[in-house]
Amino acid sequence: xxxxxxxxxxxxxxxxxxxxxxxxxxxxxxxxxxxxxxxxxxxxxxxxxxxxxxxxxxxxxxxxxxxxxxxxxxxxxxxxxxxxxxxxxxxxxxxxxxxxxxxxxxxxxxxxxxxxxxxxxxxxxxxxxxxxxxxxxxxxxxxx
Length: 144
Ligand code: DQA
Prior knowledge:
Layout: E1 3-8, H1 20-23, H2 28-42, E2 45-50, H3 54-67, E3 70-74, H4 83-89, E4 96-100, E5 122-125, H5 130-143
Parallel strand pairs: 1-2, 1-3, 3-4, 4-5
Helix pairs in contact: 2-5, 3-4
The structure holds 1,3,4-trihydroxy-5-OXO-cyclohexanecarboxylic acid (DQA).
Enzyme class: lyase
Pfam families: DHquinase_II (PF01220)
Organism: Paracoccus thiocyanatus
């Protein structure tokens, strides 16, 4: 079964409590559960992680080089700051899909630029937590 790493950046551990008017009331545990249920339907194996630390996310991307066929990543604030995460993703051979829960283009201008978009095959923004599921459906078509 193809394996997909689903990676989440800083503050997403607080999903459901953090600015619910922007990010909704679903928790990251709910997102993980829904991703696992859909992955089982689609015939994908999932490794689901969250970290508040840039280096830890980079280590997970390096791990994905050996263990995964695709990466779905919500880099959160690192989207807009991290050349290091871009560089790590550039060492990964399979498809990368960037997910944002909110529509970053409707928000502050500093959220309009993404380093990760320079690598991502596709970007999903503004579909709420459903964006993760849309990303998995697309990944299943690419690597399934
Ligand atoms: C986010 C958007 C980012 O700008 C923000 O820093 C986040 C979450 C989103 O999912 O909408 O933490 O990636």
